[in-house]
Design goal:
By secondary structure, the chain is an all-beta fold. Helix content is about 0%, strand content about 45%. Strand 5 and strand 6 form a beta hairpin.
Amino acid sequence: QVQLVESGGGLVQAGKSLRLSCAGSGFKLDYHAIIWFRQAPGKGREEREAVSCISTRHGSTLYADSLEGRFTISGDNVKNVVYLQMNNLKPEDTAVYYCATDFTWSYDVCQPPMPAWAHYWGRGTQVTVSS
């Protein structure tokens, strides 16, 4: 059974940092890419934005242009966990952050444009950035 569990969200002031974790089970990170999505307040599921992608098998990562280099994605294949280090947070980063995977994605999925949807999702973790 595939499961994804996010953690690490919280309330922080603008300019601060957070590190999100995505723990996967029922599959191996070595073989399947992970994408972090976020859903901003007032927006529906279909408006989730792909933020960052990692494919350890392909050795690739990708970020949304809007992040301006502030986020870093990494993976630990032994722990089967993906991290999203978020620095210099801004109020517009406020959202529920989800990690997701999809076994139909090719190993080189982390190329623009990132997929807009996935089959397996976690429940999300809330990130709130105050000004």
